[in-house]
Write a structure and sequence with these properties.
The chain is an alpha/beta fold. It contains twelve helices and 15 strands. The protein folds into two domains: about 1-125 and about 285-305, Rossmann fold (3-Layer(aba) Sandwich); about 130-280 and about 310-330, 2-Layer Sandwich (Dihydrodipicolinate Reductase, domain 2). The protein has a nine-stranded mixed beta sheet, with helices on one face. The protein has a six-stranded parallel beta sheet with strand order 3-2-1-4-5-6, with helices on both faces. Bound molecules: nicotinamide-adenine-dinucleotide.
Length: about 325
Amino acid sequence: MLRTAFIGCGGIANAHVPGWQAVQAAGQAAVVALCDVSDANIDKLAAGLGLEQFARYHDWTALLAQEDLDAVDICLPHHLHAPAILDAAAKGVHILSEKPLCTSFDEAASIKAAVEAAPVTLMCAHNQLFFPAIRHLRERIEAGAIGAVQQVYSGDCFRLDRTVEEWGWRAKLATAGGGVLIDTGYHPSYRLLHMAGSSPVQVTALSHNHHCPIEGEDTAHVLVKFANQALGQISTSWAFPMHPGAWQVAVFGSEGAIFGRGNDYLLKPYNGSEEAGSLPPANGFAEEVKHFVGCLLTGERPIQTHDDGINVLKLILGAYQAIEQGVTVRFEE
Ligand SMILES: NC(=O)c1ccc[n+]([C@@H]2O[C@H](COP(=O)([O-])OP(=O)(O)OC[C@H]3O[C@@H](n4cnc5c(N)ncnc54)[C@H](O)[C@@H]3O)[C@@H](O)[C@H]2O)c1
């Protein structure tokens, strides 16, 4: 039975509850401690998890010093990801961390060194990889359904009307690390990488703030070239919704194209008949927690580790650099 703790018990931690309940019911893991600066958020998460007994902490260094843990689930604001990951790795504790991995390449390099030296398993909580359509598209691409991947579009756009108080830590560059691109835009970015099946070698981007009272951008468009020559495009916004009928992911290959959204997919070979399908629904957050715990128990590599998180950061931090300097940013293969 793996002994686990939450570090950060706010909004998204509650979405992880069904996953932890499932692994607890399977006798694989138990949540033994909750850490947050807010007692109200600890209480709410404890109630959601149905915990009668747990240790309560307001400081993760005390949690890591006093509890004998196998793993932590980090659900903190962006600027706290790197320090919490480094502290957990130093104690030999495995890590499931919410996105983004961290907010700078220097932090990413420290995380890679610490996680590999420990060694511990770090899984990036890329929950949308567990969406039925995203899983299905990747399987069909790997099975050759569209030939070689040549072009990928991935988008996540919706309009949010919030006051600066409601934006909270997301309103500040110092705590969020950017605007929509490093937050909601992180999802279409890892989807893009997963579909391209390659590493980014060139990134350029444009962004603007049209609508939201935050320091960062509320809309961004990123262009990417991958090592396998595939081209990618990411669109993300908190100012505008997706256009009606838009797919979350569209992948064009040498032999055809495949599109996905939620549970639905459409395969369109260039020479052959179309195939449309609707897959059984799944809770991506629950699947991600089950996958993380399963990997810890079997020793299998999680679907996305810190190395994949660093590739996602190449898209996002590369895009920020491209925007700031008006250039195309290049990365080694
Ligand atoms: N995968 C997704 O779809 C998704 C959706 C929303 C948020 N997220 C990610 O989850 C993370 C948290 O976002 P959120 O929306 O839950 O934010 P939130 O503000 O609701 O929760 C953050 C929690 O961290 C706590 N906290 C802040 N500083 C702390 C400290 N020093 N020590 C301990 N606790 C501290 C806060 O009190 C709060 O409870 C972010 O990385 C965000 O990008 C992911």
